[in-house]
Design brief:
Leucine-rich Repeat Variant, non-specific serine/threonine protein kinase, elongated, EC 2.7.11.1, protein serine/threonine kinase activity, 18 helices, mainly alpha, kinase
Length: 314
């Protein structure tokens, strides 16, 4: 109940965790204690929700604890109480761009745990993330973190938030459009769109523009293997949903999508994940007769033979 004392306690804990000679035995020996600390810190933040100074201190401390845990290969599955406390902080300080940058980074780290990601979904954080993205579309750090959180939340098999997830598609597309030349953010946005399309959240009317946007992301960032892989997986999901997406790949205004696929493979021919994603995309496209004829005319069979030779046991 005394925010000034809490601030001092936060500072002491922060210094303790940062001591390099303590790291080797902090985890997993001190893991139960640190997990309890995260709950107490989150409750303190919720109790003193109006104190921005304490929110910053608490956020920094939670970031440090989670960072150290990840360094030691420990995934901290924060419970629903912590998720609820963080949501209160997000809502109370939704206009503070500088603080939100740190807070969204914290949410990204929290969502790395499948259990914690599910808890964030349960407390209903997705609409707040979308609101933050709309307001701070220009902020690189916020866009990257929020897209990473959206990917973690959408990739779950439980799609009870279907309507909410559908509303995330245009916002995520706006992020990708805004940051096409920023490979890190574009990669996170492509991953989020893949998870959303996998859940069937892209409407038929959005399939064509979303496919065109993903193709543009591949063109702008050809060297990023993860972006290429997840972008192709997202395209495959769109093609599975609608023939419109397949035709959009063939007839893209900026050039043949088939040629782009071939170029991407030759650039990443030693990446099995990229090859598998490209094969999945081609397989989905080949389900449509008109599209398959076009693929044959552009010698896709030759590319498939190359992939088969490169990965004979995969």
């Amino acid at each position: 109940h005394f925010p000034h004392r809490l601030k001092k306690i936060h500072s002491v804990l922060f210094s303790f965790i940062q001591e390099s000679h303590l790291k080797q035995f902090l985890f997993p020996t001190a893991f139960p204690c640190l997990l309890k600390c995260t709950e107490v810190i989150a409750r303190a933040m919720k109790t003193h929700i109006d104190s921005l100074e304490l929110q910053v201190e608490g956020c920094n401390l939670l970031l440090e604890i989670l960072s150290q845990a990840l360094e030691q290969g420990v995934m901290m599955a924060l419970d629903e109480c912590v998720a609820s406390c963080l949501l209160h902080t997000v809502r109370k300080h939704s206009e503070n761009e500088e603080f939100l940058s740190s807070l969204c980074t914290l949410l990204m780290m929290v969502s790395a745990s499948e259990v914690a990601a599910e808890n964030l979904r349960k407390v209903g954080i997705i609409p707040d993330l979308l609101s933050i993205l709309r307001r701070f579309l220009h902020n690189d750090e916020i866009c990257f973190s929020c897209c990473a959180v959206l990917w973690s939340l959408a990739v779950s098999e439980d799609n009870g938030d279907q309507a909410v997830l559908e509303s995330a598609v245009p916002v995520t597309s706006a992020v990708l459009q805004k940051h096409l030349q920023n490979g890190v953010i574009a990669e996170a946005a492509c991953s989020a769109l893949w998870a959303l399309s996998l859940q069937g959240c892209v409407t038929d009317s959005d399939c064509e523009p979303t496919a065109a946007l993903l193709l543009n992301a591949l063109r702008m960032n050809p060297e990023r293997a993860v972006l290429v892989k997840n972008g192709c997986l997202a395209l495959a999901s769109l093609v599975r949903l609608s023939e419109t997406a397949a035709l959009a790949i063939l007839l893209d205004s900026k050039g043949s999508g088939i040629e782009l696929i071939q170029d991407e493979y030759h650039l990443h021919f030693d990446e099995p994940g990229v090859a598998a994603a490209l094969c999945l995309l081609m397989n989905e496209m080949a389900q449509y007769d008109e599209v398959m004829l076009d693929m044959r005319s552009q010698k896709m069979e030759k590319l498939l033979s190359e992939i088969k030779l490169q990965f004979p046991f995969s």
